[in-house]
Amino acid sequence: MSESRFADALNGQIGYEFGAAQQYIAVAVYYDSETLPRLAAHFYRQALEERNHAMMMVQYLLDAGLGVTVPGVEAPKTSFADVVEPVSLALAQERRVTEQIGGLATLARELGDYAGEQFLQWFIKEQVEEVSSMSSLLTVVERARANPLLAEEYLARESAAEADDPTAPHAAGGAL
User: Fold this and answer.
1) Which of 65, 155, 169 is nearest to 126 (CA)?
2) Summary mean pLDDT of the chain
3) What percent of the chain has pLDDT over 90?
4) In the list 15, 28, 39, 82, which could disulfide-bond 71, CB 3.0-4.6 Å?
5) Which residues touch 162 (CB under 8 Å, ≥6 apart)?
């Protein structure tokens, strides 16, 4: 019964992760249409990252012999008032996902599902990084509202420091 409750909750999170990926694609398309290629590329990468988070969860459920459900997602927001709104939306999304992951970890602990709790530790660390980086990007984009090319320059500098995390769980289907 407890495995089923955790599996159901993790399957729900898979939907949220796919929804986040879709939202990030919509944000990237918006920035592409505004000829802001670095902001677009940043959010296309974020979309792939969220998709891979969902696939990591799929792989965990497969490895644990638990059922996998791939839920549908709501349509993302596709129009924005200005260059700041998409990043503000992204930060709110990352904060919401942080709460969701925390809720999953709490559930795993309450159920005595130590494997599930351990699996979620990487996601907890990842969410701290995601909220921090999105908060910084929002600050930069707000400052650069009148000249978004300054945000493009910021991303050019910051993206050089990005690296893959070798401690990340394996994603089903590999990191495509």
Assistant:
1) 169
2) 93
3) 86
4) 15
5) none
